[in-house]
Amino acid sequence: MEKFNLNQTIGESVTLHPELFPVYMKYGVDFCCGGDRTVQEAIEKDTDASQQLIADAQEKIDASLQLSVDSKTMKLSDFSTEQLIDRILTQHHTYLKAELPILSELMFKILTVHGENHTELFTIHKIFGNLKTELEGHLVKEEEFLFPKLLVKDSNCKALIEELEQEHDGAGDALHQLTDLTNHFTLPKDACTTYEIVYEKLKELVADMYMHVHTENNILFKRFV
Fold it and tell me: Do 56 and 83 sit in the same domain of this protein?
């Protein structure tokens, strides 16, 4: 039996065991922007339920190892650079381009209807708006400038990668703020259907962004820096 390793970095743990992704999400542990922290450091800082997390993580690892006895699974670290970039573009960039405008429109609707009774929606709306703008520019930098360089193995991209990693940190801060302001996406008693959709979509956005940034920071970018 492989034991859940508390001494490896949180980023490495997800790279080696993608099945840990939902566990970290469940307990609010950031594994993308804080990817160089050890697992121990991350869970001590991000959750008060470290023992439950460790137990859940071990259960996931055990189940995954049992499945892999009969089937081979390909880890993200085994992907070629071309495969990683294709995955980022088709799974994460396509998702953001489709969902950000929808979320923006729906968020404005609930702000209009519920803003008087839930003033935190004004702050949530502002943080999301800034995040949306930053992410749109970020996608252009990756698609038009960075990824073409990586595909031809251009080593002159360190400064751009560092800039994008800083933008990842800023996005991570915004996601943490949105999670806190929504009380981990807990709906108020007077929430309407649109309110519920917005919170569910925000939760999906956080999950997608965590895996998106993890794939870039902890796997793709490390090959070139």
Answer: no
